[in-house]
Amino acid sequence: MTTYQGQCHCGQTQWEATLNNDQTNHVLCHCDTCKILGGGAFTLNQIIPKSALKFTKGGDSLKAYSYKGDSGKSVNCYYCPNCTTHAYHHQEVMGPDTIILRTAVLPKGRADFKPSAEIWGKAKMPWEKEVAQTFEVMPPS
Ligand SMILES: [Zn+2]
Ligand SMILES: [Zn+2]
Questions:
Q1: CA-CA distance, 88 to 46, in Å (whole number)?
Q2: What is the band of 14 on the pLDDT scale with cuts at 50, 70, 90?
Q3: Could you tell me which residue ranges the CENP-V/GFA domain spans (predicted)?
Q4: Which of 4, 25, 139, 140 has its CB surrounded by the most CB atoms within 10 Å?
């Protein structure tokens, strides 16, 4: 286990994520929602137990933006109300104890995490190289 420090762009919120060194749950997502919310070509996401994430500053001030995911259930995105950095997401379809951490926001960890799968490959930009097995939408469960 390694503990990574994270903070939003303005520094108003800070957190610690204690992550398994096994990165099989590290997923690169090409979906259009990630493009719109993040402003980049994709997002990098580690699926973790909720208990692995602790806010050390400003956790109470986070705001949630919710939208309906493909499952029909809500996806709640927790972000800093000042600078809009997304710390983590919670997909209700995954149950109450599992969250999705944005690993590219971790200053020390972002380079350490390689994707184990790419999802929403059908929305991938044509110029992007494949770095892990790509699924059209989601991997079969
Ligand atoms: Zn902030
Ligand atoms: Zn996505």
A1: 9
A2: very high
A3: 4-128
A4: 4
Which-ligand-closest: CA of 79? 1
Task: Return the residue matching tokens 């490959």.
Answer: 121
The CA 113 to ligand 1 mean position distance, Å, reads 23
Contacts of 54 (CB under 8 A, 6+ apart): 15, 16, 17, 18
Question: Which ligand has the shortest distance to the CA of 78?
Answer: 1
Distance from the alpha carbon of residue 41 to the mean position of ligand 2, in angstroms: 10
Ligand nearest to the CA of 12: 1
pLDDT in tens, 70-125: 889 999 999 999 999 999 999 999 999 999 999 999 988 788 889 999 999 999 99
Q: Which of 50, 57, 43, 72 is nearest to 15 (CA)?
A: 57
Tokens of 106: 């971790």
Question: How many angstroms is it from 14 CA to the middle of ligand 1?
Answer: 9
Which ligand sits closest to the CA of 63? 1
